[in-house]
Request: fold
Amino acid sequence: MISLGRTRAGSAPILANPVEVRGEWLAPPRSAALVIGRMREACCSGIRMVSDRQPQILRIENCPAGPPAVWLHRDASDTAIIHVDVGERAWTQLAYQFGHELGHVVSNSWDSEAKPSAPCQWVEEMIAESFSLRGLANLAADWEGTPPFPGDAGYGKEISHYRDNILTQYNQIASSQGLGTSSSWFTRNRSTLEGFVGLSDHAKAAVSILLPALMARPALLEDIGALNRWPERAALPLDAYLSRWRASCKSLGSAGLLPDLIETTICSR
Reply:
């Protein structure tokens, strides 16, 4: 096990404590831990951590046999365990996968009760993906300015290129679905969105709307710390889900602007 990564003194444990790296890595685990620490900082930059249900420890395991995921477990109740599936020194792939799963952890989806559920899981998937893509933008700039490895500043452009390719794909998906040109996108695609427990093409299309808002106003992301603090989690109709989320924001002293933004900019299209 390797514990490493830049930390924020006086911050929430999810940011202040070193990350743990385990599993089958095709590169030095200390290097993987360094990249993970950088991406954690990039994802959480400018965001106030408001949740009262965050883990004390982040453990990242490279598991070539399975897809990236947050492993929902009953042991180590203070530990969020993230599985990634990355190749040798595939730092951008590692950062991207870790960033998405970290978005779920920050959204309070990391313990044994956090099973994804229809009909509103698509909201969290859209948020987690936007969380990671925003983090990649910050990581690229950070890498160019202060590379984690000597003489590796140029790799920051590779990170930007990787991110741009994803966004191009998502914008193309959005265009093919008529998002941005049709006032009935959500109505037409609601059953598909709500019926898929994962990052569907329709959730990817919605990222093209949400991400620019989060890039411009990162403080909106503090509201994700108020997600899933009610027993039904995502297994509620959309109106009830957003209502519970707003009430949770209020109880934590969060602004509650993100659920309003999603309702007005995505669910009204």
Remarks:
- The longest strand covers residues 57-62.
- DSSP finds nine helices and five strands in the chain.
